[in-house]
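User: What would this chain look like folded?
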Amino acid sequence: QVQLVESGGGLVQPGGSLRLSCEASGIIFSIYTMGWYRQAPGKQRELVAEITRYDYTTYADSVKGRFTISRDNAKNTVYLQMNSLKPEDTAVYLCTAEQTYSAYWGQGTQVTVSS
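Assistant: Here's the prediction, encoded as structure tokens.
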């Protein structure tokens, strides 16, 4: 199995920044896609951003221009740089990874944006 561990969440002021990290470990052959979803209370889980092994990226419209996803294939780690944070970004952020047609999920890290 593949295990995903997120880090970097916390409490920030509106307009601030956070950098989330997610490291994959376990039985890894070649992870193709990694990404971030978020889940806020009372809202549907949504895709925030994803990135393939060859750096093709996809972003939710709500975060374009503010968030940047990247990955280090050698470290099996994906990052999410979050700038100009808004209260609406408050959610649990969950890391995902996919390899050989299997998908894996982290337990999530809380991001709270509040003044």
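The longest strand covers residues 18-26. If you want, I can go into more detail on any region.
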